[in-house]
Amino acid sequence: MSQDSANNNNLSDVNLPLQYDRMLVVLHWVLAIGLFYQLGLGLWMEDIPKDPPGVRAEWFNLHKSIGICLGFLILWRLGWRVTHSVPAPPIGNTDFQNKLSQWAHRLLYVCMVILPVSGFMGSSFSQYPVKFFGFPLPKWWDPSPEGKELFSEIHEVTAFVMMIIIILHISAAVWHQWVKRDGLLSRMGWSR
User: Distance between CA atoms of 32 and 17, rounded to whole angstroms?
Assistant: First the structure.
């Protein structure tokens, strides 16, 4: 990188905030808790026996209902993120670390969008109605075992990819906080 472009990057960073705004912080932590819960519930639900009838369906319907709510929160967060400034990368990061962080965050957003969409689509192609906290939602198309299988597979693979990215995300945050000690975590904190 030339000296001129490095100076221009530094000048553009002057206008960037030092922390994420409160809305992004709230959405980050609400979604983090919700996604952790959903991923754990999804893994646990696989082992629920189909008999007696109803128990498994109740848990699956809860998972679907929370997934729909998180889907709307994810869209809100995505909209907020693209319309509001975020802090510059931490001082001392290499270009490689910054690119890796950007791509990890992008992939995390892609997973956050694909998970609720694929879950809803897989459920919509099922013979059972999608219930939102007990209220059946309208059917948009006829049941299709192939459609259900396709979107269920996408849902499971995306959940697995997302778990790996979350582990990397948390590992990077821990590394920044306790190894580099660069204050990165404070950018996503409550205090101002």
Answer: 22
- 103 within domain boundaries: yes
C-alpha span between 82 and 26 (Å, rounded): 16
Q: Structural domain of residue 31, as residue ranges?
A: 20-87+98-188
Best CA proximity match to 87, nearest among 23, 18, 6:
18
CA distance 44 to 38: 10
pLDDT tens digits for 157-166? Answer: 999 999 999 9
Looking at residue 181, its pLDDT comes to 85
Count of residues for the chain?
Answer: 192
Residue 29 domain flag: yes
- Asked if residue 41 lies in contact with residue 52, where contact means CB atoms within 8 angstroms, the answer is no
Question: How many domains, in total, are found in the chain?
Answer: 1
